[in-house]
Fold:
Amino acid sequence: MEAQENKSRALVPGNELSLADIGHLADHIAGEQTFARYRESKAPDTIRRHRADLALLATYLRQIPGGVAVGNLYEDPSAWSGMTRGLVEGFVHWQVQQGYAIGSINMRLSTVKLYCKLAQGAGMLDEHHAAMIGTIMGYRGREGKRIDATRPVSRVGEKKAKPTRLSIAQVKALINQPSTPQGRRDQVLMCLLLYHGLRCEEVQLLQVSSFDLEKGEFHFVQPKVDGELRHKLHLETYLALKAYLEQDQPSGALLFGSRKDGRLTGTMSRSAINQRVHFLGEQIGLARLSPHDTGQTHSLNTSLGNNKCERTKREAPPRRPICQLSTQCGLPWSRPEGLWSE
Structure:
């Protein structure tokens, strides 16, 4: 820290140094701060993924016979000075052998290549090795399927390869919650996820002030794409919301948290929303249900649902790909009656 402060003082106007000396110091300081400056503008989810990806890379490097000294790959560009194409390719093949999903392997390869470029820009990784690492290719769709066919394990952890498809009866069962404080909260939650296709973080950020019951609409922010949308309320969402607001009276954040005895308290975190959706799915015989599954169900039925939305502020890209449930599941989608219309 003291050395860093000394370098910073050397850049203060008035100290008699040549332009070459000052330039050298500036390059050195900028190089040390390369990773931190890159992450300043990145979303929290991106930062968490990078940290996890590089932690796994460090785990692999430490398992190499002979003992490899691994620096702080996440914070220190100089830790990348010895990185080579062979090490990165070894990391990719090691993940295949460990049974990691092809999509996750490709994502980690992208992270490693990105940090190699940053380290090169910081002057910590030579141009030749950076260029060779840049030529490593991930696995395309058919290639990944061929690899999966030859290995006993093709996924590590609890994340599912494909989303759970919900039938009409299952959707209705998830929406129909008991008339208790916790049940009314859960009904609002499931309506927002299933009828409006909100992501977990979008629901968690909702405020009571986000809703206008007189106009039958609400607005919500989209952290993932830095946008904001306005939705017409589905009739069942309106009725569930009206009962929840009148009887349970949340203020500030829309969704109360809850205790094991069903009492409402505090607010729901993203983790709590995921756990609650998982629990409600189990109650109707669905294992490992997640908000991602409900979002996929909404996407499959958007073309038949008539949920109108209006973009506000920044233009956010269209929501998830739209296709009809009947073509995917062989089931007709019966739109609940009484949708709000203009």
